[in-house]
Each structure stands twice: as structure tokens, then as C-alpha cells.
Design brief:
By secondary structure, this protein is an alpha+beta fold. The chain is built from 18 helices and 34 strands.
Length: about 800
């Protein structure tokens, strides 16, 4: 394993050189956060005119959940800034300042792969320099990204180049590109170099823990492969592997002019006033990254392997298929896929504005569609749009992304949860290391092992087990997929319940305590009886018992044998859940975030104003103060909504909202939802816009590292659950009680419940729920049961 150029989050946060450019910006709610001349308003397209920035590469990225390709950034593309594959990563040995038992040992970082959309152009023997006109756009209906350039060759002579790229949403391993050349003033002979880009990224240091770790001696290396009989003439192929993780991938591409194959480097004659088009098809393949687990002999099993020749053969098969289909046919399939997506998932608002809000909302939904079209290895915090957080998966997926899929595309939601099921062997192994029973899912990582070197705000976030269990329960309740519950979901629920039962203890006061944990608020670490953790663990324990006791006959016998269920085990979970310590201040009438929150000094919000705090203050300075990075208790009020009355929600929100910095992009969504519910409509709209524009307006100064995909999911949640009023409390109760913003005329959203497709339309006067297909569904609408 290689050494890493690593920032230890606790030891290097105070370095000054990286602080100036990492402020969190607040929106002026009266103004468009984007320049309409540079970013024109269009309900189905997002376009940028002018020189691109580092953020542009993220905003105009393409993905299908398996392949991710970044947009133009006015910087050379390389293995760190071009193309990524789901689960494909390099590893390194984590070096701790001081070692201790149980620390994470192996780091993981997403590894870029050869880029096939990078081209160089020459005219009259001279390489074209900077284009005089540049634009790029995303089309939400076509599922394409277009980069357009105009080069001045000499007086009155210019070359226009359009590069249209499509990462196929309907096929995981394929992408296609069309280059169109237009000559103005005279005919031009254009020399094109379109080789695969395998340039290495520059290794540098950065103190921002949100960025990727960069490995000094690892990375991608090309394998020598005899690729005879590839099946398509004049292609370019390659097989590459990571030095330390030993993961291997294959890539191949071919291209055509007028139906004839051309090599990677070619000349194209462009007539004056006319155009010439080049079609390129590219295929990527790697074996599915199975999470590292253990077998019955407690030996670490190896990741499934496939030789590089086979990977190249698969690429050739894909290219043969693509060429036979043709570019136009692929485009039609892409449009058809997206047409279905918008029919099932679109959120429409009548806000009386100029359309910017509607455009940006569709951009967010389009990003969710791209990141989850295929889900071979889970969904990382940045999807495949950049290297932020090293490409790791967090609780973000289950809490902020899974609900969108559960209600709009249940099959893809099941894929996400099945990935967690495949991680269970590694979770069991981690639980034993941490002296617990059951399974403990990693706080962050890619291959199923814990990759957080900062245990205070990483491993200590045990709540990830409950977050995953909650998503399982929500999925089963919304879809009615009993088969998943009996085959995979029950394993997750049982093993997470066992973890909680062994993590906590029965105290002298007769209540069950869970000590020394960190909740979602990472500015409050290693506390006793974190309310969010405890109440979500309580939910987990009850639902695990319910699920186990719902099984009968052969299903039950299979689960009892497979999981070695002990007599009375579910009753023990129920007892623990009933006796769970849930801190509450009777005098103030609020739930306490943890046992010690009232003993901490409140942060000096008037004078200590630099944001985010984690880049300006040592963790110990933050931990001893009463200040929140993101909502914690308030998030529990939303997720378990049916357990709390409106007065309780308002008191809790009034107490915690002023303490919340919003330094996390996750925070604004739950703040929006609760603010809308308790009657703070203007504040809810402010939080909604902060989620909505987090990336396109670069509010957190790190859009260049990738999309805040959970924030995109949070935008859907804010619209549908916040203003649209949808609640399910993890499957305990289905209800719709909207809180439409005063300036909006209407809100329309789509849901799929037990296989039935519904359209919900909200105005200030009424709520209509229309069934498009499937069986009748019963919901509580504005407090009254209604069968649709």
C-alpha cells in the first residue's frame, strides 16, 4: 500500500493558506444568484457562456451511475479531473499521528480512469489556442452535454466545433460523442488528436477535509495486453489497474466519419460554409466491486477478479452493439429514458418568477437521475462528478437520496439497499473490532471497510446503522416489497439492532444509555445520549423486532438459521427500545441534543463569524461550545414526524435553529422542512434556496470538487416534504399536509406508492391526489383519510 499525501483533520485545520477561498456565502434572496447573461434561463437546459471555471466542470458533468465524465474547466484534463467509474478506487496505508487499536488502516480514494472526450485540434499545421467564444450546456430532455468553441483562424475565417457527449442512462458501460466541425470563410483541413488521456494529476496538499486524498506513489498503470480480434476495426483499447488496490478496468473506443472507421489521430476536410461530423463510441468495463468481507473461516476474502483481456473483449462487444445501433438510435433511447424519468419524478412549481427557480430545480433532479440511473456499487456523496470526499459513501445516500428513489423509482432504491446488504460481512467484521455484536457499517468508504481516520467525527457516528435501517423500513413500507425484507432487509435490521443492544448499557436510573457517540452534528463530538442517535436506535430496534415477528413458516425458519436468532432476542430489543434514554428538558419543553448541551458555552456568533468553522478553529474550540454544524435533533423531528406534536417541533426548532451554522450542505433541507411545518414560511424559503443554489451558485466554495448530491436529494425533500407536506415517519404513517409558500401559485409532484403512480397538486385552496395507474391507495390528506 502506498503512502498518502494526507491532511489529518484534527491536526492541520489551522493552516492559513487554504482558508481565504473557503467561505460559505449567503444568498441575497431578492436577486438572481446567477448572471442571466452568462447563465440564461431555460426550463429544460442549463447553459454557461464564457470562459469555464473549475466549478463548471462539476456543473456540466455527465453520469449514469457507473461512468462519470466532468465538463470543461479551462484546465488540462487528467486522471484526477476527467472520467470516473463507480467503485473504482486506489488504496493506501493510513498513517496516524498516534496509533491505537481499531483505527482504520486502509484509506480509499476514487481513481480517475482514461478520458475519451479530450481532443486537440490543429489547422494549417498550428495547434489551436484559446477559443474566442466558449459555451457549454446540459440538456435535461436529451441527456447530453454540449461544449461549443469558435476559433478565429485568420481574417474572416473561423472554425466552429461542437462536442456533444452522452453517457448512456439506459446502458451502464457506454458513452457516445459527436464532434461537429463548421468552417466559415474558407475550407479547412482540421487535424484531430483524440487519443485516450491518461495524464497523471498533480499531487498537492490541501487542508480542507472535504477534498480528496492524493496518493503519492499509487494510481493507474497500463497493462500490456494482446488485443487481437477485437471485433471493430481501428479502435483504441487499453487495460489499466491500480497499483495498490489491484482493481482492473478496460476501456475502448472507435470513431466514424461518414460511416467509415478512422483512427484516434485523423484529418477531416471541412468545406467552407458546410460541416463535418465525427462519431465516437466509448465503452468502459470493470468487474463489480464486491465489498470486502470475511468467510466462515474468518479469512478476508479477495475481490472478484476478471482478467484484462476479458474486460477488453467486453468493451469490443459493447462497441459493436453501439455501432450497429448508430448515434441517432442511441439518442432516441436516451430521450425515451428521460421522458419516463420526468413522467415519474418531475416537480413543477408556479412561483410567479422568471423561471430561474424552476430551471435550477430541474438541474437538481437531473443530477439525481444521472447519479442513480445504474447503481452497481452504491452512490457516493459526490456521485461521479468529482473527487470530493475521496469518492466515499456516507449516510447521505440513505437519508437524502434514497427517499427520492423510493418514491419515484423503487427498483433503483432497492439496488442501493442491496449494496448495503452486500457490505454486511465487512460490517460484522468492523463490529467485532469495535467489541460489539451484529454489524457496524463504515462511516465512510468505498469497499465496505471503514476509511475514516478521524474517529471522533467518523467512526463515532454510529447513527449510520439506524439511518440504513430507516431506509430499509421506508422502502418496504412504501413499496410493499416483502420479498426484499425477507431476503436482505431483515439481515440489515437484525444486525443493526444487535449492534445497538451491545453498544449501550442499562444505567442505574433504569434507562438504556448510549455513550461517547457523535450525532449528525459534527461540531458536537463524543457525547453521551445524543438524542438523534438514541431515538433513531429506538426506531431501529422496534422495527427489527416487528420485521422478525412478521415472518412465518419457511421464511422465518430460513432467517432464524441464517442469522442464528436467539430465543427472546426480539423481545430484548423491544425492552431496550422502551427504556431508551431520550434527553428532555421539562422546564424549557425541548429535547436535548445530548446530556451535556446545556452545560456548554454558547458560541459567540456576533464576533466569531468566519465560516465554515472547521477551517478556522481547532476542533476542541468547537466541541466545547454550543454550536451546530447541521441540524441534529431537528432532523429527527422530520424523520420520525408522527412521534411529535406541532408545539414540541416548534419549541425544538426555535431553540436549535439559531445555533445552527449550516456549514454542512445537508443542513438546509431539514431546516426548510421543519420551518415550513411550524409556520415560518419565509425562513423555510430561505433554506430551500440555500439547498437549491448550493452548487450552481457555489455557496460552499467547493463545487469544483463535485456535486453535493445529498443536497440535491434535499431539494426534492424540501419541495415534496417541506412545501408539499409528505410524511411517512419511516413507514409508520402516510400523510400529506402541505405548506405552500405564499408567493407560489401551485406545486405538483409525483409519487409511486405500492406500485401505484400518483400525482399530487397543491394550491392555496386545495390538495388533489390523482392516481395514474395501479391499485387504489389510502392516504391521510390534511388530517382526513382519503382513498385515491
Amino acid at each position: 500500500m502506498g503512502d498518502v499525501v494526507r491532511r489529518h483533520p484534527a491536526g492541520e485545520m489551522m493552516l492559513e493558506e487554504a482558508l481565504d477561498s473557503n467561505e460559505i456565502r449567503k444568498l441575497d434572496l431578492q436577486d438572481d444568484p446567477l448572471d442571466a447573461r452568462r447563465y440564461p434561463i431555460d426550463p429544460w437546459r442549463f447553459t454557461e457562456y464564457g470562459e469555464p471555471s473549475a466549478e463548471s466542470a462539476t456543473l456540466f458533468s455527465l453520469s449514469n451511475g457507473t461512468i462519470g465524465v466532468r465538463g470543461e474547466a479551462n484546465a488540462p484534463r487528467n486522471l484526477g479531473s476527467g472520467t470516473f467509474l463507480s467503485g473504482f478506487h486506489e488504496t493506501f496505508a493510513i498513517r496516524h499521528a498516534e496509533e491505537a487499536y481499531g483505527f482504520a488502516r486502509v484509506g480509499q480514494v476514487v481513481q480517475g480512469v482514461p478520458d475519451t472526450v479530450d481532443f486537440k485540434f490543429c489547422v494549417d499545421g498550428k495547434e489551436l489556442g484559446k477559443a474566442q467564444q466558449v459555451s457549454q450546456s446540459l440538456d435535461f430532455k436529451d441527456g447530453t452535454a454540449t461544449r461549443s468553441y469558435v476559433y478565429d483562424i485568420d481574417d474572416g475565417v473561423s472554425l466552429e466545433v461542437d462536442i456533444v457527449t452522452m453517457v448512456c442512462l439506459f446502458r451502464a458501460d457506454l458513452m457516445a460523442t459527436a464532434l461537429t466541425f463548421k468552417a466559415r470563410g474558407r475550407a479547412l483541413n482540421v487535424h484531430v488528436e483524440g487519443k485516450m488521456n491518461t495524464d497523471q494529476p498533480v499531487v498537492s496538499r490541501d487542508v480542507d477535509p472535504r477534498k480528496a486524498d492524493l496518493i503519492a506513489d499509487g494510481g493507474l498503470r497500463k497493462l500490456e495486453v494482446d488485443a487481437i480480434s477485437r471485433g471493430v476495426a481501428d479502435e483504441s483499447f487499453g487495460a489499466f489497474h491500480c497499483l495498490h488496490s489491484e482493481l482492473t478496468m478496460g476501456v475502448g473506443f472507435c470513431q466514424q466519419i461518414d460511416g467509415e472507421m478512422v483512427p484516434a489521430v485523423f484529418d477531416v476536410a471541412v468545406p467552407d460554409g458546410g460541416e463535418k461530423r465525427v462519431l465516437r463510441y466509448a465503452a468502459y468495463n470493470t468487474y463489480r466491486i464486491n465489498p470486502i468481507g470475511i468467510d466462515e473461516g474468518l479469512q478476508v476474502s479477495t475481490i472478484e477478479t476478471q482478467n484484462s483481456v476479458e474486460l477488453i473483449r467486453l468493451c469490443a462487444q459493447t462497441l459493436n452493439w453501439a455501432v450497429a445501433q448508430g448515434f441517432e438510435a442511441l439518442q432516441e433511447q436516451q430521450r425515451a429514458w428521460l421522458s419516463r424519468f420526468w413522467q415519474e419524478s418531475d416537480v413543477e412549481i408556479d412561483d410567479g418568477g422568471d423561471g430561474r427557480l424552476r430551471q435550477t430545480l430541474r438541474w437538481e433532479l437531473f443530477e439525481l437521475a444521472q447519479a442513480t440511473a445504474t447503481v452497481p456499487n452504491g452512490v457516493s456523496a459526490k456521485g461521479l462528478s468529482g473527487t470530493g470526499y475521496s469518492g466515499h459513501y456516507f449516510w447521505d445516500t440513505e437519508t437524502y437520496i434514497a427517499p427520492f428513489l423510493i418514491y419515484t423509482n423503487p427498483a433503483r432504491a432497492r439496488d442501493i439497499l442491496s449494496y448495503r446488504f452486500r457490505m454486511l460481512p465487512a460490517a460484522r467484521k468492523r463490529a467485532r473490532i469495535m467489541s460489539m455484536e451484529g454489524g457496524l457499517f463504515p462511516w465512510r468508504g468505498i469497499n465496505g471497510e471503514e476509511a475514516s481516520a478521524f474517529f471522533e467525527a467518523g467512526t463515532a457516528q454510529y447513527h449510520i446503522d439506524a439511518d440504513i435501517a430507516y431506509a430499509v423500513c421506508q422502502y418496504v413500507a412504501v413499496t410493499g416489497d416483502h420479498e426484499f425484507l425477507a431476503s436482505e432487509g431483515i439481515d440489515i435490521l437484525v444486525e443493526t439492532a444487535r449492534m445497538w443492544a451491545s453498544l449501550g448499557y442499562m444505567g442505574w436510573d433504569g434507562t438504556f444509555h448510549i455513550n461517547n457517540v457523535t450525532g449528525p452534528d459534527e461540531y458536537t463530538a463524543l457525547v453521551d445520549d445524543n438524542y438523534y442517535t438514541n431515538v433513531m436506535a429506538q426506531f431501529n430496534l422496534r422495527k427489527a423486532a416487528d420485521a422478525l415477528e412478521s415472518l412465518e413458516g419457511e421464511e422465518l425458519n430460513a432467517v432464524v438459521q441464517r442469522l442464528s436468532i436467539k430465543p427472546g432476542e426480539s423481545m430484548r430489543w423491544r425492552e431496550i427500545a422502551e427504556l431508551m434514554k431520550l434527553p428532555y428538558d421539562k422546564k424549557l419543553g425541548i429535547h436535548l441534543q445530548d446530556d451535556d448541551i446545556m452545560r456548554r458555552e454558547t458560541w459567540d456568533f456576533e464576533h466569531d463569524t468566519e465560516r465554515p468553522l472547521l477551517l478556522h478553529y481547532h476542533p476542541m474550540v468547537i466541541y466545547r461550545r454550543r454550536v451546530l454544524k447541521q441540524t441534529d435533533t431537528v432532523l429527527a423531528l422530520y424523520l420520525l414526524s408522527s412521534q411529535f406534536g406541532l408545539d414540541v417541533k416548534r419549541r425544538d426548532f426555535d431553540f436549535y435553529d439559531p445555533l445552527t451554522t449550516g456549514d454542512s450542505s445537508l443542513s438546509a433541507a431539514s431546516q426548510c422542512i421543519l420551518a415550513a411545518e411550524v409556520g415560518y414560511g419565509d425562513l423555510a424559503m430561505q433554506y430551500f434556496l440555500e439547498s437549491l443554489y448550493a452548487d450552481v451558485a457555489n455557496l460552499h466554495s467547493n463545487t469544483s470538487d463535485g456535486i453535493h448530491l445529498a443536497s440535491a436529494g434535499g431539494v426534492w425533500m424540501s419541495a415534496v416534504a417541506g412545501f408539499g407536506g409528505l410524511r411517512d415517519s419511516g413507514g409508520e404513517e402516510f400523510s400529506i399536509d402541505p405548506h405552500l409558500p405564499r408567493d407560489w401559485g401551485s406545486l405538483t409532484y409525483r409519487l409511486t406508492v405500492h406500485g401505484s403512480r400518483l400525482v399530487v397538486n397543491v394550491t392555496h385552496g386545495e390538495v388533489s391526489v390523482r392516481r395514474l395507474s395501479g391499485d387504489p391507495v389510502t392516504l391521510k390528506v390534511k388530517g382526513e383519510l382519503r382513498t385515491v
